[in-house]
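step: validate -> pass
step: tokenize input -> pass
step: predict -> running
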Amino acid sequence: MFGESKYDILKQVPGTHIPKTVYIEMPSSPELVIQLMEQEALSFPVIFKPDIGERGHMVKRINSRSDVTTYINQVKGNFIIQELVDLPVECSVFYVRYPGEERGRITSVVLKEMLRVTGDGRSTVRELIMKYPRAKLQWSRLQEMHTNRLDDVLAYEEVFELNSIGNHCLGTTFLNGNHLINELMIDAFDAIGKQMDEFYYGRFDLRCASIESLYKGNVKILEVNGCGAEPAHIYHPGFSLFEALRILFNHWNYLFEISSRNKERGYSYLPLWEGIKAYRNFKKHMVK
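step: predict -> pass
step: emit ->
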């Protein structure tokens, strides 16, 4: 639910489906981090993200050695380095399978549209950001990220991507992709999910080359989020609140059923004290 290690979860995913990933235990130094990157043949740009975190907190694109130093001075705990997966389609696939059943189901597909502005041949990047409410909300962060481009005038219909990290709170638009769900997709994620130890419920955040690649399971999985994850297609602009609540309740029912079946198989529920401990550890890492 919270406080779990992203790295430990990612290690359960079949190796062909994950980007090159390095775990950094703090305290560390920029020199050691760069040394580990070189050992793993990781070159800039890369993605740094906390090993414990959520909602895009401290997920950064790292472009240089100076960025490494800045990140280490800001991050509150252990983190992971991931190679930048520059495939054109970023999406999330929610997978559910009951213990004892051979076939699972896909309950949600989200297509992610990165935060971007489009030139009109007259306006600067700064002006385009201010004209676009979704980008304007991110101004303090975008101002720092794009200091050298703010006064550039974009050509007519020139697209400038403001953020390459597909997170809702960073300005990414989530689009309902449930129309893409078919038997091929279910087969692909059954094959992935069954190779993970006792995995029955969660959302794969991934990139792939095309929708056809998605159907074939030719994907790079950036993260796997478990029972704290939402079927994020409910964040499609204009999506009905009542329909979103119905979908959430359905997913909580999936969780209840999976937990009940696992209890019957001999697994114990998480003790309250352990849950409190995990929550406190999680909050410690989320302090900004």
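step: describe -> The mean pLDDT is 92.
step: cleanup -> pass
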